[in-house]
Amino acid sequence: MVQIDKQHKNLFCWPGHMFTTLQERQGCSLNRRRRSLGLTLTILPPPRKPGSQNGYQGDRYIPSRSAMDLDIARFNLLCEAKENTSMLLNITSPIKEEYRKKLAENLLQEKNAKDGKKILVFKKKKRSTLKEDERLNYLLYCDKSGARKSYRHIPHLPERILDAPELVDDYYLNLLDWSSKNVLAVALGTAVYLWNAESGAISQLMQTSEDDDYVTSIAWATDGKHIAVGINSMEVQIWDASKGSQVRRMSGHTARVGSLAWNGPTLSSGGRDSRIINHDVRARDHIASTLKGHSQEVCGLSWSPSGQQLASGGNDNLLHIWDVASTEYLYRLSDHQAAVKALAWCPFQAHLLASGGGTADRCIKVWNTQKGTCLNSLDTQSQVCALVWSRHYKEILSSHGYSKNQLCLWRYPSMVKIAELTGHTARVLHLAQSPEGTTVVSAAADETLRFWKVFVASDKSNAIVRMHAKECGSLLLKAVQIR
């Protein structure tokens, strides 16, 4: 703003005001011209903004220290030092780190300079519409009725322990399964035993005809009545558990049958001969198709909940995704560095598969089987033997070998470890989930079965699972007639 004073012949400037900008230098030149004409030029400072304490906002290169929060700056520097130390020493758990970040976000709010905000301040911030006391009151007295608890009690001791003598210590076999009628089947050496979870009754279902033969895999049909049994002598048998009688014997493999999976009336079997055979148990000529993609033993088989995709894992470190209508694999996934035995389909999200690798790999990987992409990979620091998704929570349970022989519970999708269950003294080879989804049984090379009640369901979790199951679509279970 410029005023011309004809009465005074002096130049008036505000005290301490420096000619540092282009406009001020131009004003000075204009003043000299006016003085030559006998006029006086007075330069007034710009008007203050409403609510500002000081109209001067600082130079482009000199920050305003009064607008800085030096305590927050010191806090951020200390946090950086702690983070670097924790990364080097690997002493901070993911849960503690997540808690620390959330605490800092809530306490510091907009003051935290680590959230991409500028550290140096060149002008004062606008005043908040809320007073400091009002902000604190909002934080302290906000409605907590709808807040969700971030934890629940998980028992770290097994609910029950059963002996399992002569359980074969072989990573590539599948010797445990729980039926929809709440009957647990376990293969012990040459025989298959049934344990009724409701009555506690134990019975022997079958035994191999040869003493040097042994059971290599078992799998319940969806009706909970029939059970498939794979034998070391290259045979697949189907038994009626309610009658205790053999229904059918099927051949086709040239080596032991280490994995089995049902999909309605179709039974898929994987053998040491590296082949997968799809058997139609209703037909006399039972071999419907043969899938070739692995070069070594097929140790893991699992059909998706929709019945449209089959996942197979092998000792060749490969994971294949097969479409129900084709004999050519849809995807070949080679990210694992060891045998892929542990396979589990997500019950609440379609096309989501978890796989686990052996000793040389030790990773749990989560896949989008619709696109063939890996969504997440976690190094568990131990051989992954089996995987089970929770039906009530977004969690996954894994069993491991050397060195802790433990079970680990992970939250999905963050893959933060929630709990670690110990008690087995040898590698935990197999996992099976109860029909209601609350209990998981583990079978280990220490010849024991341990029952863990890790997925106690709440009304809210049941509602979430039902909603996701409805979105994903459900496979109608029908009685299977076996010829």
TrEMBL record:
Tree of life domain: Eukaryota
Gene3D superfamilies: YVTN repeat-like/Quinoprotein amine dehydrogenase
Each WD repeat, start to end: 208-249, 291-332, 421-454
GO BP field: anaphase-promoting complex-dependent catabolic process; cell division; positive regulation of anaphase-promoting complex-dependent catabolic process
Molecular function via GO: anaphase-promoting complex binding; ubiquitin ligase activator activity
A Pfam short name: WD40_CDC20-Fz
Domain CDC20/Fizzy WD40, first and last residues per copy: 162-452
SMART domains: WD40
Family according to the record: Belongs to the WD repeat CDC20/Fizzy family.
Protein name: CDC20/Fizzy WD40 domain-containing protein
Source organism per UniProt: Ceratopteris richardii
